[in-house]
């Protein structure tokens, strides 16, 4: 099983640690693309900070993020599961998993990254700011860069297992799995007085809890149907949709926020 997670926009900047070593990251077939994106991002942020901020889609009061990107090659690094923060990662809380579950996380989780393509929880990375919809001067849309090479890396890591795709739409555009792969997407619906809707904050938190529960249980389903069954065994209410171009959608229905 390979679980693809979205990154967090907010990140915890490591205070100490070795500088970035792209050759030490997992998914080595992505190294050349990582170099290209890193070079373009650093070059942008070494220029006019206001232009860089506008290109990155951040406000003029966030020029510290431009400075952060400018030092990406020298800044301290930490494990990716310590750098990525936010609702999903708080709910997942890799640091408090059992040792066996943490080992599973290292093998089964990958974060989709605008800068690095894919990273494992144990990969050492610096904090950075680069959203999935950014177009970098001299490079073009970062999504286009990753569409050229992400599929090979992800498919190799997946093997014959199940892909659990939890990416948001911006990062799903980096790679569309082939129709012959076993793919499950998960949507979290809040049901209240007979009506259902997606609540962004709780959607992320629930996905984090789902991944945590799967890692702790040791479940390794090979099909969307078996994933649905595993989640039901863990106490979730799950409705399985029909197969489509993006795999099988599983709706996890919750009644409390």
Automatic annotation (TrEMBL):
One annotated GO biological process: response to hydroperoxide
A Pfam short name: H2O2_YaaD
Database matches in InterPro entries: YaaA (IPR005583)
GO cellular component: cytosol
Domain of life from the UniProt record: Bacteria
Name of this protein: Peroxide stress protein YaaA
The species this protein was found in: Nocardioides soli
